[in-house]
Amino acid sequence: xxxxxxxxxxxxxxxxxxxxxxxxxxxxxxxxxxxxxxxxxxxxxxxxxxxxxxxxxxxxxxxxxxxxxxxxxxxxxxxxxxxxxxxxxxxxxxxxxxxxxxxxxxxxxxxxxxxxxxxxxxxxxxxxxxxxxxxxxxxxxxxxxxxxxxxxxxxxxxxxxxxxxxxxxxxxxxxxxxxxxxxxxxxxxxxxxxxxxxxxxxxxxxxxxxxxxxxxxxxxxxxxxxxxxxxxxxxxxxxxxxxxxxxxxxxxxxxxxxxxxxxxxxxxxxxxxxxxxxxxxxxxxxxxxxxxxxxxxxxxxxxxxxxxxxxxxxxxxxxxxxxxxx
Length: 326
Prior knowledge:
- The protein is 1% helix and 43% strand.
- It is mainly beta.
- Strands 1-7-6-3 form a four-stranded mixed sheet, with no helix packed on it. Strands 8-16-15-12 form a four-stranded mixed sheet. The protein has a four-stranded mixed sheet with strand order 17-23-22-19, with no helix packed on it.
- The chain starts with 5 loop residues before the first strand and ends with a strand.
- The C terminus is likely disordered.
């Protein structure tokens, strides 16, 4: 008879099963083989007197070895469980993407399913569609860094399967939009920050997960380095201080090489208001009804007072107007 009751085979197109190779060495020669497909199955093949030529699908063959001319029928039965070996293809997975890129479609070029079981995509940022042919990769969901994507098709429990891996690097990227006041006083510290941050470019602990490399990919520049200075704080934030009146440009760059974006704005630094050297609070002035105003010299500005032209010999009420350039 046969050397075993059942065997499992992982087969490719045009493979041939030789039934005689499974007979025990003690089996009598000269017997016949009767082959039957056990339903349901998806097997495609050609049954020959002593062999089976495989052309795809999965299922079970029942092979009976017997001697039709024996007075007493003797036989032995072998069950051959056949699985189709996956035809490994490829995919269009890019090597690098930006964190802010839209969701990518990954298409598998090989046989998308085996015996009704589709291949499976897996990995960070992966959404498997259940078709074996298409999956989606979301760079933002995966996060900054290198990610391994896997595709598996077949039956890993029997070893009749194929798997392969690919890597995709998600680079930091983010919107460079920021708001800058149009004017500032000299020596005034203006804090600089983006309108929004994401975890690929920022290092603040409130973002989960924080930037994978621990580095802020936000770079501030501007001013002229002497009359106006931008100080990058290294954490995605910065400050601007103008010392001399004028108009200066402040710029920010976000992201890594290949994913860089930038934006610039201008800010005007105004003169410092002069230091007021005020005269004494009390001034005497004649109550001449014809004298309604007088001017007191100041430093950088003049002080104008009025006695409101009260009647003669009345008490004057003075209102001081401090007028100075800004």
